[in-house]
Amino acid sequence: MSTVLQAKHINKYFKKPVLFHVLKDINFKISKGDFTSIMGKSGCGKSTLLYILSTMDTDYEGELYLNNKLITNNSKDQLSYIRNKHIGFVFQFHYLLSEFSVLENVMLPAKKLGEKSFQEIEHDAMQKLHILNIDHLAKKRASQISGGEKQRVAIARALINNPSIIMGDEPTGNLDSHNSNNVFNIFKRLSEEQGLSLLIVTHDEDFAKRTNRIITMEDGKIIS
Ligand SMILES: Nc1ncnc2c1ncn2[C@@H]1O[C@H](COP(=O)(O)OP(=O)(O)OP(=O)(O)O)[C@@H](O)[C@H]1O
Question: Does the complex come out with an ipTM higher than 0.90?
Answer without folding.
Answer: yes
